[in-house]
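From the shared-data thread, chain only:
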Amino acid sequence: MEFTQYLLQPALFTELPPRWEEIFGRRAPLAVEIGFGNGEFLVEMAKKHAEWDWVGFETSLTCIVKTGRKLAQSGIQNVRLVLLDGKFGLRELFPDGSVLRVHVNFPCPWPKSRHAERRLVDEDFAQTLRAVLLPQGEFHLVTDALWYAEEAARKLSEAGLGVQGPFPLSEGGPGTRYERKWRSRGLSIWGLVASSLTPGKVERIAEGAMPHAKVAVKFCPERIRTLSGLKEVWPEGAFVVKEVFLSPEGKTALLRTFSSDRGFSQHFFIVVSEYGDGLLVQLDSASVPFRTPAVKRAVFSVAKALEAG
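Structure, as tokens:
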């Protein structure tokens, strides 16, 4: 399918952040859109700024497919699409001082206070922007919720970014379906622009070698079944083994596992298999997650539990 030529799977990359000049085949300014929806804005901006390389983040595969087809129909080559939470992707996939522009159009404001932690613009996101933006780089936010724009402006300013706005956008918005919908209802549209005043740094967590461990014990189906429910929780993360599957021959096990790192969730499988006189515990190659601290801890904790058996 034509959309696949635009799709990246950074969890499979051996190096993070990746070398974008190798991915695009040229050295050009980098621009990002987080939550590109049906791709209207991303496609038009890629045409308007053909001298930039664009990376779009979405969590909807349907949006990835629709946008990829639009890109293919337009013959656009300066865009790549990533099925990934944009907050995590912006931090992990871009080096410090490498991004010229970041766009977010009409993010869900999550108005209820109990959902505040789901809002895109928080302290961590602001620090990521400060780190990855070039000195002349900018973050552009468009929203129909003034209170959300004001909260975002405050958090960005507190993180040390220069902020213009919020200001009303009577015209010149992103031109998306959402903008047309809000304007048809007579709703106001608000924008803000933030820039990095001084270089920042951010801690990246999806790096390092693929975790694995060798255990000097025999394969024991009964013991492995007890790993279901194994979990650990710590201030910045958690993991839990949700379910255990044994192969018919009883020599391999798959552990369906969930992990969370600072709110970034992943589902993956850990494989336990015979290896010489013992066992090998590693990630299943069919569901390779980002190598975050919680993922690594899950692998090594499974090995430790088997060893303690």
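The first strand starts at residue 7 and ends at 8.
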